[in-house]
Design a protein that fits this description.
This protein is an alpha+beta fold. The chain is 46% helix and 12% strand. The longest helix has 21 residues. The relative contact order is 0.12. The protein binds 2-acetamido-2-deoxy-1-O-phosphono-alpha-D-glucopyranose and magnesium ion.
Amino acid sequence: MILENIYNMENNLRFIASNFLLEGEVKEIKPLGEGFINDTFIVETESSSTPNYLMQRKNKNIFTDVPAMMDNIERVCQHLKAKVKAQGGDPMREAMTVIKTKEQALYFKDAEGEYWAVCLFITDSVTYEAADSPELAYAGGKGIGKFQSMTSDFKGQLTDILPGFHNIRFRFKQWDEVLSKDHVGRKKELMAEIDWIEGRREEMLEFWSKVEDGTIPTRVTHNDTKINNILFDDKGDVLCVIDLDTVLSSTALNDFGDAIRSYTNTGLEDDTNLDNVSMDMAIFKAYTEGYLSETKSFLKPAELEYLAFSAKYITYEQVLRFLMDYIDGDNYYKVKSPEHNLVRTHAQYKLLQSIEQQYGQMKEVVADAVK
Ligand code: GN1
Ligand code: MG
């Protein structure tokens, strides 16, 4: 039975792949990684002279408009390729390549209504799961900085496929609704945690109003700036940024803040030992210097002023999102235990406190790096 399932799955994957314009004959299709959102496979071809590919089933519960998402990705990729070419680089290695279907579409919709997309697998590239040295953090900051620099003159309008994603006013709306329903009855145990959120509401809204009134501009943003979304070559230089599913128009500060949230944490996002969790200043400094080496020439004064604040903002938002999901009965994030979202809430809050304690120094690091 199990063998038969595997056989069917393999055949199904081969059928999906056969709809795309692939070079060479498919040899094998294997699962890759264990993404929380999409399912990813590597499609290997028979000959070493033909490329391999990444094939993904996109999560249509989170990405409710996959066609618009793929259109955003393609337009950003084409923009990046033109830039790389103009700078004398290799557009097939220094930018992602979306592979079209035989019908010239950017995705294939299967009989079950699932959406599939394929991109080129870039050979001789390396990814890292954690930024465990300042050198790597510097390179990662440079990678995201380069992405934002190359897209800083992007003229088109990207479709907002995740409305309100890092918009705290929108998150408070969800938060207020979830708290007023309290439909699994968890609220009464969480008065301290709820105070963590409420006590900082005004500060966060004040920042976001600067984005709303245009003081802080809107740009092309990646929205998932973890280090494992950057491809490096074998010499340790950045090739390109990958996983463009969440490219949106938003503030560049969100990409900076989210990178700091993930790069600098000395513990895990769901660490049960809070003593492990803190913000590592050396990693912060290195990322900031790498990032600003590529971006300080075009970022606006208001963006530089709020750069350190963005780390507080995104970490706070993450505390809110984990806690809100816990109160809502765990509908959004996959959980491995009933308390998982609460564990994540506590660990992110510890990180937020560590950022708040070091905030003065973080601002100094930014000021020094823009000199
Ligand atoms: C989700 O699964 P991953 O790590 O790519 C989430 C991010 C959160 C992150 C927290 C589309 O991203 O916003 O910061 O979990 N992505 C989406 O671990 O909601
Ligand atoms: Mg992602």
